[in-house]
Amino acid sequence: MKLSVAPLICCLLIPAAYADDNGGLKKDAAPPPPHALDDGYRGAEDARIMTIKQAKEMHDGATISLRGNLIDDQGNDKYIFRDKTGKIDTIIPKAVFDGRTVEPDQMISINGSLDKKMTPPVVRVDHIRK
């Protein structure tokens, strides 16, 4: 039984065509207005989620959990995150997205640490949950 090389090569190249999407922020939709940010989310985790205003008052290196929207991609893994109390700069490596895409109108949770040595302070994100 002879096998042709061409079908074998095609089978190996098909998965590469589906791997083009690397995740990150897609700016197809506009973020919701700040006053509508807690619509639709209730649960026991509300007690552990803090606001950006509270996070900015914490000490350097503090563990941060925020719920809101990624609204802008500034390049080099830098993004702007917003909740109902304000905005904060974040650093989110591509590996944290794990191939998932986030749109500005999607409510997400981020976990990370506060870096107050940078001006303005930033959150170094190590986990995203949609």
UniProtKB/TrEMBL annotation:
Gene3D superfamilies: Bacterial OB-fold (2.40.50.200)
InterPro entries noted in UniProt: BOBF_sf, CarO-like, YgiW/YdeI
Pfam family, one: BOF
Signal peptide: 1-19
Record's keyword terms, sorted: Signal
Name assigned to this protein: YdeI family stress tolerance OB fold protein
